[in-house]
DNA sequence: TTGTAAGCGTTATCAG
DNA sequence: CTGATAACGCTTACAA
């Protein structure tokens, strides 16, 4: 592990000259700079990040925090974030687990992008109070060191609701997300608004938690109570897949007896048969926007909270109710 | 951003006393320690990682490097790695991109787990030569600072081959992975061995790259050449899904006309209809093992390279060839 | 153009 | 039990 001292000794110059040479300062002759660089290369010199970070008071690393690594959900999102950051010379690291929260307050990263329920909002506000920069994608937080980029949940849920109402559905199950989840709450709120405008609708809420197994459970419950066509709005695709999978084991037909619509348009959604109706949005763009917001926050540029637009994807999993005369 | 100096000033003690107190040394009275801790908490003191890393010459962070973030492939694997590491007080960060390679030589991480084709083996060997600790999961590298944990590719490919031969198949397509991929090469080798033992087999290789779109292309080619039942062994599930998806748009029936088997048992494999036959293994265990190997490497404990065992998962995508008399 | 030296925030050795 | 002080490796005024 060579350091600038070693190089200085070998080159017969002082460490500051080495530092200047390696950082391309014009304060040093082209010849000595070349000589120093040659020696550095030969010694396989790599600057020590800890020392440099300590001096510069920044790491040029941004952390993205996820509740977990599973689910095909995050691929494009992370890709988007990475693109945004790399362009500006920042590196991206992805973290998941309570103990890695420390990376932010300990200043191992210059900022954080949060999509992680294991952070409490109090915790985030405290970090923000200490001057740490944060972008949240999964909650609503007002602080000068926090920016937010949200999905347009209200629009998405409303699109889904209007679609199924248009298809004639009047009996509706809604499988909710984790209690306390921002996205879940916003979606439920929009659902209730739409239901409120359609007084002839029967509305049944099933508590879920965004996981596939919650979907399976919901599927069981719905099957047991089955008494004619019903629409099921799962607040994410993962749970819709759970229901789908469960219904395959019964003789209830999806898109005929039970009608399904999800949210997120995850990859598997297109492989189900019939195709899962769902709400789509650009996960990549969501990520790009989040990274941009964080970089602006770090640079001290003020920004407005932003929204990601959503669209309806129709699928045979959500069919029309036959009109009964 | 309070530091120990601030605390020392407020507590009326020296910085070394503060350091001892905060690190729970017995060299300091319980009362002063308590007083110092109280002040630290009040100031929201958090030790600066850069300074600590610089002094300690370690970061207690391990980096996992992936070629990309997409694909539902990595969830369980990362979960396994994380569990292994967290137990030993290490944090996990996940990286992807050429520029983040720097984290290893710059000593921002104490070691790396590689599942990333963007690292050349030469690059890894150079890091190893500099004393950096690495575990590789995607290649074969012999160095005292590198450990390896591989899938039993040979066994997996052989299982797949024996299965399809047993079902009567004599015409075989193999869709390969990325050229130069260790897993792909090992699997092809096993395939060729089995083919060699069955001289009546017709063997056609289609170059792929482990992506779904490569599968779609392969599907097209196979369809064009179609002249009776054939088995297709895709060297990963992702490509098998590509073929599956393409065949759905044709009137060729999977498991009847074209018989498919993949490798990995990714999540979507169970949603295809008919179910995709594939080779399964515990991705979580693979991760746990990799983290254990890395920690041992760091601790200076010698270990043997390890293998992950694989099993065959049958599926209706791979049916029997009707016996023609 | 190059060298000296201070400082980033910790930890740890050595005196007191 | 507590306090100076050096050291970790680097950057950067300031001096020569």
TrEMBL record, chains A, B:
Keywords: DNA-binding, Repressor, Transcription, Transcription regulation
Record-linked InterPro entries: HTH_LacI, LacI/GalR-like_sensor, Lambda_DNA-bd_dom_sf, Peripla_BP_I
Keyword Transcription: yes
A single MF term (Gene Ontology): DNA-binding transcription factor activity
Domain HTH lacI-type: from-to ranges: 2-56
Family annotation (PROSITE patterns): HTH_LACI_1, HTH_LACI_2
Pfam families: LacI, Peripla_BP_3
Protein name: LacI family transcriptional regulator
């Amino acid at each position: 592990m060579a350091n600038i001292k070693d190089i200085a000794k070998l080159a017969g110059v002082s460490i500051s000259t080495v530092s200047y040479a390696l950082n391309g300062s014009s304060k040093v002759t082209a010849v000595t700079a070349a000589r120093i660089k040659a020696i550095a290369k030969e010694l396989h010199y790599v600057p020590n990040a800890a020392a440099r970070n300590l001096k510069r008071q920044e790491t040029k690393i941004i952390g993205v925090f996820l509740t977990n690594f599973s689910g095909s959900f995050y691929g494009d999102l992370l890709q988007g974030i990475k693109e945004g950051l790399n362009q500006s010379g920042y590196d991206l690291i992805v973290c998941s687990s309570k103990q890695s929260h420390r990376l932010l307050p300990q200043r191992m990263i210059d900022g954080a992008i949060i999509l992680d329920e294991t952070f409490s909002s109090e915790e985030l506000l405290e970090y923000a109070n200490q001057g740490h920069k944060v972008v949240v994608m999964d909650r609503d937080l007002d602080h000068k060191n926090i920016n937010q980029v949200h999905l347009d949940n209200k629009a998405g849920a409303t699109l889904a609701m209007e679609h199924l109402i248009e298809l004639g559905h009047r009996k509706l199950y809604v499988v909710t997300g984790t209690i306390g989840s921002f996205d879940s709450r916003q979606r439920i709120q929009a659902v209730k608004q739409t239901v409120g405008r359609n007084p002839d609708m029967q509305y049944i809420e099933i508590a879920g938690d965004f996981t596939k197994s919650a979907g399976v459970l919901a599927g069981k419950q719905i099957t047991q109570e089955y008494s004619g066509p019903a629409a099921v709005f799962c607040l994410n695709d993962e749970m819709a897949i759970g229901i789908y999978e469960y219904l395959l084991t019964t003789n209830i037909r999806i898109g005929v007896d039970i009608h399904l619509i999800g949210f997120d348009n995850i990859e598997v959604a297109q492989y189900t048969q019939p195709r899962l109706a769902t709400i789509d949005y650009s996960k990549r763009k969501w990520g790009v926007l989040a990274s941009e917001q964080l970089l602006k926050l770090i640079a001290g540029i003020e920004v407005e909270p932003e929204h990601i637009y959503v669209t309806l994807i129709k699928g045979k999993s959500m069919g029309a109710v036959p009109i009964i005369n």
